[in-house]
Amino acid sequence: MVDPNPKVAGKGLVEIESAGIETHVGILEERARKLNEAYIKHVTTGKPFVTLKLATTLDGKIATRTGDSKWISCEASRRVVHRLRGRVDAILVGVGTVLIDDPELTARVGRRVTYPVRVVADSLARTPAGAKVFAQPQGLTVVAVTPRAPVEKIRKLEEAGARILTVGEADGHMSLPELLEQLGRINVTSVLIEGGGRIAASALGAGVVDKVMFFIAPKIVGGESARTSVEGPGISKMADALQLREVTVRNVGCDLLVEGYTCSRDL
Ligand SMILES: NC(=O)c1ccc[n+]([C@@H]2O[C@H](COP(=O)([O-])OP(=O)(O)OC[C@H]3O[C@@H](n4cnc5c(N)ncnc54)[C@H](OP(=O)(O)O)[C@@H]3O)[C@@H](O)[C@H]2O)c1
User: Fold this and answer.
1) In this structure, what DSSP letter does residue 122 have?
2) CA geometry: angle at 42 spanning 17 and 37, to 5°?
3) Ligand 1: centre distance to CA 188 (Å)
4) How far apart are CA 255 and CA 198, in angstroms?
5) Does the C-beta of 54 come closer than 6 Å to ligand 1?
6) Coil, strand, or helix at residue 30?
């Protein structure tokens, strides 16, 4: 495929050909596009490619009624997630997940640890300064706040090592499209959203998700108040449900992994 970067488009091909190397364009192009999907999206739109990953029980829960979520998916699924984390530029969670799970947001594959940018969407700067996201030896921790966040709390987060991004609001929440645009500007080409249900709902509602990955564990936890994978108001008509395309389903350990693209993917 031709490099879609407007700065170089076609020039590489010309150079290879002028060096006497025979070139063919378009062979297995669909697969090449998939391989380069994050790069293509970033270079053509300035925005990162967004994957929404969730681990749910068979009854759609992402935690029990007490908020406990360790572990829903099996070890094999968690290994897949760590490999995925190792391939993205940033991992994004809502402050709810930080307050309850206190995740490190690192990628651990075998003994190798890598450090994608850790992003917390936190309108009012409620992230504790002692959170594990600040205790990592490498990598940037971004806390995205709205203009309503108290200055004193922002200062404490900066002292803890956070890079603060101030993001406007839309529909009563931080605007995720604006946050992603800001991340795109600091060269984040791909983002993995790792829940919880509120961020997932906002991201899907705002149409910023390109790809969805649901690890479905053969477990049932029940409970009306237990968080589900996509919260928010939801839709009223089934005909309006978000239909995924290019869907694949496979077994990972004892879980099922359902992957698909949303219609916002425009490659
Ligand atoms: N199974 C899984 O895959 C998985 C993954 C992650 C978490 N979890 C579980 O999910 C539970 C936490 O759920 P949660 O829904 O509270 O977590 P969340 O979605 O990570 O965080 C929600 C919070 O994020 C903030 N936020 C910032 N921008 C937002 C936006 N545009 N839209 C919505 N919220 C925004 C809001 O607080 P402010 O208004 O203060 O900004 C909101 O209360 C925990 O029990 C955790 O264990 C499960």
Assistant:
1) -
2) 70
3) 21
4) 23
5) yes
6) helix
pLDDT above 80: residue 9: no
Cα–Cα distance, 46 to 180 (Å, whole number): 9
Residues 6+ apart with CB under 8 A from 236: none
- Whole-number Å distance, alpha carbon 187 to ligand 1 midpoint, is 25
At residue 191, the 3 state secondary structure works out as strand
Return the SS3 of 180. helix
Q: Which of 264, 246, 255 is nearest to 219 (CA)?
A: 255
Q: Compute CA 83 distance to the chain's CA centroid, rounded to the nearest angstrom.
A: 14
Mode of pairing for the β-strands spanning 162-166 and 141-145:
parallel
- Nearest 10 degrees: Cα torsion 251, 252, 258, 262: -140
126-161 pLDDT, tens digit per residue, is: 999 999 999 999 999 999 999 999 999 999 999 999
Would you kindly state where each structural domain of the chain is located, as residue ranges?
Answer: 1-35, 36-234+241-261
Are 26 and 167 a contacting pair, CB within 8 Å? Answer: no
Q: Decide yes or no: CATH 3.55.40.20 for domain 36-234+241-261.
A: no
Nearest ligand 1 atom to alpha carbon 62: 1
Contact 42, 189 (CB under 8 A): yes
Integer Cα distance of 145 and 34 in angstroms: 33
**C-alpha 182 to ligand 1 mean position (Å):** 20
Q: Which of 176, 198, 209 is the best mutation target for the ligand 1 pocket, counting ligand atoms within 8 Å of the beta carbon and taking the most?
A: 198
User: Does ligand 1 have an atom closer than 6 angstroms to the CB of 67?
Assistant: yes
Kindly report, residue by residue over 92-127, the tens digit of the pLDDT.
999 999 999 999 999 999 999 999 999 999 999 999
Assess whether the C-beta atom of 62 lies below 6 angstroms from ligand 1: yes
Closest ligand 1 atom, residue 54 Cα = 3
